[in-house]
Amino acid sequence: MGKLGIKRDRNNFYAEVEILEYWVVNLKTLQLIVFRSPQQGKYTSKLTFNEGTIQPLAFPDISILVEQIINND
Fold first, then answer.
1. CB-CB contact of 18 with 40 (8 Å)
2. In what order do the strands lie in the sheet with 21-26?
3. Is 34 a residue whose pLDDT tops 70?
4. Residue 10: band (very low, low, confident or very high) from pLDDT cuts 50, 70, 90
5. Whole-structure pTM over 0.85, yes or no?
6. Of the candidates 63, 2, 71, 62, the residue with the CA atom closest to the CA atom of residue 31
7. What is the span of the domain harbouring residue 14?
């Protein structure tokens, strides 16, 4: 199975078991990809960031700088 197939399977699995949110850090494109709101085995929200701040659903009082996550210097 190719890498893309594994990523799709993981995404579907997480949605099926109702993981409310998960993050993927793509260091090649310097992006943070956030999947949220699983419904019927699929995520209904996909957000892509390369800057700014994000609040994890589990910890809404915390703001994280996206640049601190994707900075690979």
1. no
2. 21-26, 31-39, 42-49
3. yes
4. confident
5. no
6. 71
7. 3-70
Residue 38 pLDDT exceeds 50: yes
In this structure, the number of other CB atoms found within 10 A of the CB of residue 15 comes to: 20
Separation of alpha carbons 32 and 44, rounded Å: 17
In one-letter notation, the amino acid at residue 55 is Q
How many domains are contained in the chain? 1
The secondary structure of 8-63, three-state, reads HHHHHHHHHCCCCEEEEEECCCCEEEEEEEEECCEEEEEEEECCCEECCCCCCCCC
**Token pair for residue 56?**
């994890």
H or E element, residue 65: strand 64-65
The token duo for 46 is: 């996909």
